[in-house]
């Protein structure tokens, strides 16, 4: 039996299923990051943040990741966002994680809204709910380790006006790859 078609089917289901998130998932994810160590302090001094309750990632040599998110300016929901990533390199498996991106000021949020593409080379490993990774990108370098749902990881401070935290949700994946990440931004109508 050839496992490759089953693997790609499971990966596609993971990626497509990660695009839908309920409002309570956003609230729960924000609360998790507010109580997850290092990420808590960024809520008080950031200009804005983007939260992605579930990003599904999978690959076998060629991989991808996708997740739906929301953007908040001073804790007020202002837009929706979608993160899409394509990667190529030594990788196998699938994983799911939550991510939050804090923006130091309006200028850095504007850069995010522009949908700028970023390339990064990195290495990561996820086993069930623990994760470790390191990456170097076009405008930042980072290293992370997450022990589970109550531990957010980051490189410690704002890098190029952004601080990125992740919480491993589960999976089994190893990756050493080059990836391109793209964010699509859709402003919500003002009420």
Question: Any overview of this molecule?
Answer:
Mean pLDDT is 74; it is low at 14-19 and 126-147. It contains 4 helices and 6 strands. The radius of gyration is 16 Å and the shape is globular. It has 191 residues and is of the alpha+beta class. The longest helix has 14 residues, at 4-17. It is 20% helix and 54% strand. Strand 1 (48-73) and strand 2 (76-103) form a beta hairpin.
Give the total of beta strands. 6
Order of helices and strands, N to C?
Answer: HHHEEHEEEE
Total number of helical segments?
A: 4
Low-confidence region ranges: 14-19, 126-147
Instruction: Name the shape in a single word.
Output: globular
The major pleated sheet works out as: 6 strands, antiparallel
Terminal-residue CA separation: 55 Å
Q: Radius of gyration in whole Å, from Cα?
A: 16 Å
Indicate the structural class: alpha+beta
Overall mean confidence score, pLDDT: 74
In percent, how helical is the residue content? Answer: 10-25%
Strand order of the largest sheet: 1-2-6-3-4-5
| Strand coverage percent | over 45%
How is this fold's topology laid out?
Elements: H1 4-17, H2 23-34, H3 42-45, E1 48-73, E2 76-103, H4 106-113, E3 118-127, E4 130-137, E5 141-146, E6 162-187
Antiparallel strand pairs: 1-2, 2-6, 3-4, 3-6, 4-5
Features:
six-stranded antiparallel beta sheet, alpha+beta, 6 strands, 191 residues, globular
Task: Write a brief structural summary.
With 191 residues, this protein is an alpha+beta fold. Helices cover 20% and strands 54% of the residues.
């Amino acid at each position: 039996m050839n496992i490759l078609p089953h693997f790609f089917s499971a990966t596609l289901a993971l990626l497509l299923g990660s695009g839908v998130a309920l409002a309570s998932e956003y609230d729960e994810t924000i609360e998790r990051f507010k109580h997850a160590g290092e990420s808590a302090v960024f809520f008080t001094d950031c200009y804005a943040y983007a939260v992605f309750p579930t990003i599904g990632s999978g690959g076998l040599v060629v991989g991808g990741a996708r997740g739906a998110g929301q953007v908040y300016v001073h804790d007020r929901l202002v837009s929706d966002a979608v993160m899409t990533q394509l990667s190529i390199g030594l990788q196998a498996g699938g994983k799911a994680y939550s991510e939050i991106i804090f923006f130091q000021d309006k200028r850095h949020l504007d850069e995010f809204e522009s949908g700028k593409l970023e390339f990064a080379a990195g290495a990561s490993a996820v086993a069930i709910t623990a994760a470790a990774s390191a990456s170097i990108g076009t405008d930042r370098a980072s290293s992370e380790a997450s022990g589970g749902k109550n531990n957010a990881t980051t490189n410690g401070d704002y890098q190029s006006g952004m601080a990125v935290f992740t919480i491993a949700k589960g999976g089994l994946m190893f990756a050493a790859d080059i990836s391109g990440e793209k964010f699509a931004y859709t402003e919500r109508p003002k009420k």
